Amino acid sequence: MSVTFHIPTALRAFTDGKREVTAEGSTVGEALSNFAASYPDIRPHLYEDGGELRSFINVFLGDTNVKNLDGLSTPLRGGEVITLVPAIAGGAS
Amino acid sequence: MMTKTPIRMIDLIGNTPLIDLARISAEVPGVRLAAKGEFFNPSGSVKDRAARAMILGGIESGELSKGTTIIDATSGSTGISYAMIGAALAFPVKLYLPANASAGRKEIIKNYGAEIVETSPLEGSDGAYTAAREEARAHPELYFYPDQYNNPANPKAHYDTTGVEIWDQSGGMVTHFITGMGTSGTLMGVSKRLKHFNPEIRIKAVQPNSPFHGIEGTKHMDSTIKPGIYDESAADGVITVTTEAAYEMTRRLAREEGIFAGVSSGANVAAALSYAKTLPEGALVVTILCDQGTRYLSEHFWESAK
Ligand SMILES: Cc1ncc(COP(=O)(O)O)c(C=O)c1O
Fold it and tell me: Which of B178, B290, B180 is CA-nearest to residue B230?
């Protein structure tokens, strides 16, 4: 399943300036980890040392925060857009 | 008892207390940490000081008069300040915020009667800044554009008030000052004033350790548009802090000091504490508690047991 990540400006320094990156995965978590694997410098900005996604990062599948779905286990159909947004916001909205 | 002359909301800005962080200081014997309780300002943040100075400056210069709308970009706090002062002085207010500004902040702004335009969460504060500037330039006849990132009245407000208060309230004993930067107005104004009182006072800027962070109101300078008022040489160096450390200290402030403050306050105190560990006995480190914790109630970090 191939999905497209929309990259926030704050992370574009680690994606060679790319605004969009595609990655494969059958769940949101898998696609995210494959995305991070293709740009290794981005990893510490997204994951804690133990491998958990940093707690302030909200992952949106389309317009929906995955917290309101099945989190990182949310399945992908392919073709979706995933956006990473720092939870400077309240998370749910 | 009624005071003889009832006070105006905008006269309540500033003169916040310098609070002793006694329990957190206990980790660094011989060094004291103290912080300005900026959440005591009438709209709940340090930004009331700059907003008042810029708005009064606009009225004085004639750029802001009846019927003119105040327009600016903000991560939220300055917006709340503009909205409060705009309401009190009868000016409409239009604010550009990244869509990921906390829901609580947006509610407060709306309840003061101000208008919000949301900009892309992917672009952060730079996206809001560019959009506000474009609209202000397209319709100069409609707007007063304080442009907080480039308005010298912003740091001057801190030179005139915050810096003097810190000096007076510490009895001239402050040895180190450290704070984060949104526009950098607080750091620029306070550092200049403190160095003027005593050139030996050391100044540190707090920076998020990553351009991708959750310390609301704080800018990662190296990866974003530098504010015109920002002068890197004003600080004697930088202390970096992770979002996780900022969250943790925000919780500690509530639980150990009874101070319910926001995430940038947590970042400031976390950085102040790590800086304090490198300082000799007798140091008095002062930082800023930028805003109230109630704005962040919808965030999940309060729940963490860590
Ligand atoms: C919550 C919060 N903390 C700190 C700051 C930093 O203040 P300054 O703009 O004076 O650098 C801001 C500024 O926007 C803020 O919103």
Answer: B180
ipTM (interface pTM): 0.90
One-letter amino acid identity for B246?
A
Range of the domain at B246: 9-45+152-305
Q: Of B144, B172, B207, which one is at a domain's C-terminal end?
A: B144
Residues B45, B38: contact at Cβ < 8 Å? yes
Tens of pLDDT, residue by residue over B189-209, are 999 999 999 999 999 999 999
CA distance A87 to chain B (A): 6
Domain C-terminal end among B104, B126, B144: B144
Q: Which of B297, B294, B243 is nearest to B271 (CA)?
A: B243
Instruction: Count chain A–chain B contacts defined by CB atoms under 8 A.
Output: 89
Classify residue B2: in a domain, yes or no: no
How many structural domains compose chain B?
2
Q: How many A from CA of B219 to the centre of ligand 1?
A: 9
As a whole number of angstroms, the longest Cα–Cα distance in chain B is 58
Token pair 């704005």 in the structure block, residue? B295
Cα B93 to the chain's mean position, in Å? 19
Q: How far apart are CA B232 and CA B113, in angstroms?
A: 37
CB contact under 8 A, B211 and A55: no
Lateral strand order in the sheet of B69-73: B115-119, B93-98, B69-73, B143-144
Nearest ligand 1 atom to the CA of B184 is 11
Q: Alpha helix (H) ranges present in chain A? A: 28-38, 43-46
Q: Is B15 among the domain residues?
A: yes
Residue B3 falls inside a structural domain: no
Side-chain half-sphere CA neighbours of B258 within 13 A: 3
- State whether the beta carbon of B207 lies less than 6 angstroms from ligand 1: no
Phi, psi of B210 (to 5 degrees): -135, 150
**How many CB atoms are closer than 10 A to CB B141?**
5
Q: How far is A7 from chain B (nearest CA, A)?
A: 7
pLDDT tens digits, residue range B109-157? 999 999 999 999 888 889 999 999 999 999 999 999 999 999 999 999 9
What Rg do the C-alpha atoms of chain A give, in angstroms?
A: 12
0.90 exceeded by pTM: yes
B68 is written with which tokens? Answer: 């003119």
Could you tell me if residue A56 is inside a domain? yes
Q: Does A7 map to a domain? A: yes
